[in-house]
Amino acid sequence: MITVVYVTAMLISFEAEFLQSHNAYRKQHGAPALTINKNLCRSAQAWAEHLLSITTLKHSNKDYGENLYYAWSSATKKLTGHEAVESWYSEIKDYNFGRPGFSSKTGHFTQVVWKDTKEVGVGLATDGNTTFVVGQYLPAGNITNAGYFEKNVLPAGTKVDSKSTGTSE
């Protein structure tokens, strides 16, 4: 019973950090705040547990946007919700705002700040040493149709206006 309460409290704290980190980065890029979707959380949690059981990093076959994070440590380590999101956001260094578009080197970053995405779910699975984090997003980002990256991946410094559309300043 104590373990279940501890794990539940840990997941709630992780989820809050995960959402807060997303929204802090999104605000920098003129994207509106995300909300937690509990159905996405259940899906992401099931996928994270599956990944831990097979110890392989691979995407699910869902119609959601999806970011995956994997960490291993020989010592037991508590991962924060911020660490996974920060690792995805760090891909900004490779994103070319002058030539917007999809790249496997920046797809995690672009999903984090994708303006049209409204909801996120998170799953965390760990055995104490190996940890998998799954973020699932609705609507999905990284749509490669013409103009979508220009509209959804805005430079840092873009402000969120009252209609949830970005304006550059």
UniProtKB/TrEMBL annotation:
It comes from the Eukaryota. Belongs to the CRISP family. This is Cell wall protein PRY3-like. Residues 13-145 form the SCP domain. It holds the Pfam family CAP. One of its GO terms (cellular component) is extracellular region.
